[in-house]
Structures are given as structure tokens and as C-alpha cells.
Design brief:
The structure is a single chain. By secondary structure, the protein is mainly α. The protein is built from 16 helices and four strands. α1 packs antiparallel against α9, α5 (140-162) packs antiparallel against α14 (378-406) and α9 runs parallel beside α11. The longest helix has 29 residues, at 11-39. It is globular and about 60 Å long.
Length: 439
């Protein structure tokens, strides 16, 4: 029997959302999995990559079961949606809606299943980014518990508050694609987790060479181009704003990479490929909250700032006696936390009201905009401070409590014997078989 396609379904918008979601998913697996696996010491390559794959899988299960509704469903509290199973046919194949934000946005033109998957890949990459702070010592059993619990109790609160129609969204705080919801959250929670779990072995902290820079670059490249889906998919329509967000993303990232490399050259005498990757990440993160709200000059300014401020945070602040007591393995605090905070605040300054985020693809589609301090709206900057403060405080407190409770069940840190051996002791596998008997 032939059944006509629903009138609300726009195949172009649906195709773009599914493609964008796939790009973002590729950022996690294999993107961050191979980036982490390549940038860590050889004995931690398998464990680091496996942490990414486990997080991706475990988040999807709880996302479909109840977390999606907590982040994007009907309002339960001003900061959280109502938990509920996402299993009905109407929910998965019917028209996508965000109930608590319905008054501020039109009906979407793709199925609920598309929206659910699109938002899932954002959720998954957040806890994977967080994991970069605790590589090389977190007990895998503790990670198994932590991922779904943190996703349920922490991520959903920030997502609903800013994206799901919660109190920060109602106030007017802006986060185009996750500078606060994803990166500031991951940077804050990752730093707290690193402090609570404790450091790597001192020998690993003193000598932690990447086992494969070429593998690291493969992951970095996937991360960069995958960000086209990250920021280009958030208008929810394949329209002009999506194109502007993609162009701004790449422009800012290129500028940040070049500026970071220059900072390395000035300070250390040599340009560093690891430094360039960090500059790339800082640029991607910093433009994320602003991608569809700033013009090209705004993207360049954010890129310059992303090459300087997170660089200073990583190379100066995190190396002070006080901050260095926390072993943030990949400096997620700087490249995601500081960069996300900076980008969110700069959104409050540089957001150009002429950059309309069109709600739809028709010629008469309405547009919404964000007006920054530079264009006469100082209050937007204040709102950005409110949003950042909430994410930082809530993530720090909630992450601390979750880890302390988990520590009553399993140790948060591997024992000394496993820490000395690495992958073979934890998983019975090693990354490279070259030189092994029989090879």
C-alpha cells in the first residue's frame, strides 16, 4: 500500500540534519578515539580509544530511554524536562518538536527520530571530551558507571536550560551550538574529575610522548571537518544561516590555529604540530556559541582570541604551582573550558543583529537574531555571564557528588600495578603488535 509522505516533511532539511548528525558522530568515533589513541603514551592507546567507544554506546542507550526527554521534552522544572521513555511510534516517526520551546520556534520539517539522533551525538561527544581530562589513570569500571549517570544528571540540565526551552533560554542567553552546553560543561566537569580522581603516575606525567602524531592528525582532521555538522546543523534547516555558520567555523579555526602556532614559535622557538592541533580545537570551540550570530569579522576576532587566551591558560595558568596540582591530561580545561567560556562571552559582545537565524527555508521564513554589546545591547553580555556561571557551578558541584558516590562502589583510580603496565593489564590488548613474537 502506498502512503503519501507527510506534508510537513522536507526531504532536504531531513537529509541535511541526518548528514550533520553523522558528521558530529564521526567526530567522536573514530575522530576523538584515534586522536586520544594517538596523542597519549603508547601503553594507554587502547584504553583511551575504548573509553570513547564505550561512552558513545552507553550515552545512546540512556538517551533513547529517558535522557532525551529530560533535555528536550515537556518541562518538569525550569531547568529540566520530564523523564520518559522515547519508544512510541509517534515519538520516533512523527514530526519533530521541542515542547517547552515551541512558542519560540516553528514546527520542524523532519521526524522526531532525526532530532533525537542529532541531539544524541552532541550529548555523546560532551562526555568523551570530558574524558580527555582523566586519561591514563581512571578506573574503567568507574568510567562505565560515570558516563550514563553524568549524562542523566548533569548534561540534561544544561541542555534543557539553554536549548530545551528552560530558564536560561527564556531569559535570552545564547549558545548557538554548545559553547556552554558542551564545551564549558566538559571543561568544568573534566577539571573537577581530574582533581577528584588524582594524577597519573609521576613517571607518566614527566614523560608522556604521543605514540603516533600521524594518527593524532587523522583524528584532528575528522574533528575539524566534522564541525561543519556540529555548527552547520544547528539552525535545524538547510538554509543561509547554516552556510554562514559553516564558513564562520572554518574561518575562526584557521585563524586560531595560525595564531597558536605563532605563539608557540615566539615562546619556544619552534612551531609545534600538537600546538597547532590545540589551536585548532580552541578555535572550533570558541566559535561554537557564536557561529550563526557573528559576521566574518566577528569570526576572525574570536579566532585571534582563541589562539591567545586558551594558549595562555594552557601554557601559563595550568602550569602554575596551584593549577598543576590537578592533572588534566589533555588540558581540556583550557582548550574546551576556557575557549567555550571566552566564545560565549564574545557572543555577548560581537553578535551582529544583521545575522538572522532564519526559521525555515521559505522566502517568507521569519528570522531571529542576537544583538551584542558592540551593537548597543550590553544586557546580552550580562546574560552570557549568567549562563556561564550556572553551567560552571552546577557542573562542578554535580560532578563532584557523582564521583564521590561512585567511589563508594568502585575505586575511581586504577591500582599502581595497572598504572605501570597500561592497556595490557586493563584490557589484555596492546595498540601495536610490531615486534611481538610471531610477527
Amino acid at each position: 500500500m502506498l502512503v503519501p509522505s507527510p506534508k510537513w516533511l522536507d526531504s532536504g532539511n531531513n537529509a541535511w540534519q541526518l548528514a550533520a548528525a553523522t558528521f558530529v558522530g564521526l567526530q567522536s568515533i573514530p575522530g576523538l578515539a584515534v586522536l586520544y589513541g594517538g596523542v597519549v603514551k603508547k601503553k594507554w592507546a587502547i584504553n583511551s580509544a575504548f573509553m570513547c567507544f564505550y561512552a558513545f554506546a552507553s550515552v545512546l542507550v540512556v538517551w533513547v530511554l529517558f535522557d532525551y526527554n529530560m533535555a528536550f521534552g515537556p518541562q518538569w522544572f525550569s531547568f529540566l524536562g520530564t523523564p520518559g521513555l522515547a519508544t512510541s511510534a509517534a515519538f520516533t516517526t512523527g514530526q519533530a518538536t521541542v515542547p517547552a520551546a515551541a512558542s519560540g520556534m516553528p514546527a520542524l520539517t523532519f521526524p522526531m527520530a532525526t532530532l533525537m539522533f542529532f541531539q544524541f551525538v552532541f550529548a555523546a561527544i560532551t562526555v568523551i571530551i570530558l574524558g580527555g581530562s582523566v586519561l591514563g589513570r581512571m578506573n574503567f569500571a568507574a568510567w562505565v558507571i560515570f558516563c550514563p549517570v553524568w549524562m542523566t544528571l548533569v548534561y540534561t540540565v544544561g541542555a534543557f536550560s539553554l536549548w530545551g526551552g528552560g530558564w536560561l533560554a527564556t531569559m535570552g542567553a545564547a549558545d548557538f551550538s554548545g559553547g556552554y552546553v558542551i564545551h564549558l560543561a566538559a571543561g568544568t566537569s573534566g577539571f573537577v574529575a581530574a582533581a577528584v580522581i588524582g594524577p597519573r603516575l609521576q613517571a607518566d606525567r614527566d614523560n608522556f610522548p604521543p605514540n603516533s602524531l600521524l594518527v593524532t592528525l587523522i583524528g584532528a582532521g575528522i574533528l575539524w571537518l566534522g564541525w561543519n555538522g556540529f555548527n552547520g546543523g544547528d539552525p535545524y534547516f538547510a538554509n543561509a544561516d547554516a552556510g554562514a555558520a559553516v564558513l564562520n567555523t572554518n574561518t575562526c579555526t584557521a585563524v586560531a590555529l595560525l595564531v597558536w602556532t605563532l605563539m608557540d614559535k615566539i615562546s619556544y622557538g619552534k612551531p609545534s604540530i600538537i600546538g597547532a592541533v590545540n589551536g585548532m580545537i580552541a578555535g572550533l570551540v570558541a566559535i561554537t556559541p557564536a557561529a550563526g550570530y557573528v559576521d566574518g569579522w566577528g569570526a576572525i576576532i574570536i579566532g585571534i582570541c582563541a589562539g591567545i587566551i586558551p594558549w595562555l591558560a594552557m601554557n601559563k595558568l595550568q602550569k602554575t604551582k596551584l593549577m598543576s596540582r590537578v592533572d588534566d591530561t589533555l588540558s581540556v580545561f583550557s582548550t574546551h573550558g576556557v575557549a567555550g567560556l571566552m566564545g560565549g562571552l564574545l557572543t555577548g559582545i560581537l553578535a551582529n543583529p544583521a545575522m538572522l537565524q532564519y526559521i525555515g527555508t521559505e522566502k517568507d521564513a521569519p528570522g531571529v537574531n542576537v544583538t551584542g554589546w558592540l551593537y548597543g545591547n550590553f544586557h546580552q553580555f550580562i546574560l552570557q555571564i549568567y549562563g556561564a556561571a550556572f553551567i560552571i557551578v552546577y557542573n562542578a558541584i554535580a560532578t563532584f557528588i557523582i564521583l564521590k558516590v561512585i567511589s563508594l562502589i568502585v575505586p575511581l583510580r586504577m591500582d599502581e600495578a595497572r598504572l605501570k603496565v597500561g592497556d595490557d593489564a586493563v584490557h589484555g590488548e596492546t595498540a601495536y603488535a610490531i615486534g611481538v613474537e610471531g610477527e
